[in-house]
């Protein structure tokens, strides 16, 4: 075997390995995601749902505070925080749903995105209701 042939084989070997590995890598990328695997889509939908849930809690507390005799009109700051948290949860949830390339169980977080949309909407309704009551009372 000549030196020229040996060098050509040595240069072509990595290309052959990459060429053979490409279909195997594509097959790994197509494999389904596990039920408990934390993907980026699932993480963002979880963040959005947590923001919406925080908005519901804060909006509910502000609403309870605004309906009482002692603290009437004091729920304005809580209402604004609930509106902001609900809006942030809805925007992030909407982006997750828009970016999802598959349905439930694919790891894109589409179910969590829809949950975040609903929870964020509830937080915004509570915040708006509290803000309306605070304006009427004040």
TrEMBL record:
InterPro entries: DUF6223
Pfam families the UniProt entry points to: DUF6223
This protein's UniProt keywords: Membrane, Signal, Transmembrane, Transmembrane helix
Domain of life: Bacteria
Transmembrane segments: 42-66, 78-100, 106-131
Keyword Magnesium: no
Signal peptide: 1-26
Name recorded for this polypeptide: DUF6223 family protein
Organism listed in the record: Nonomuraea helvata
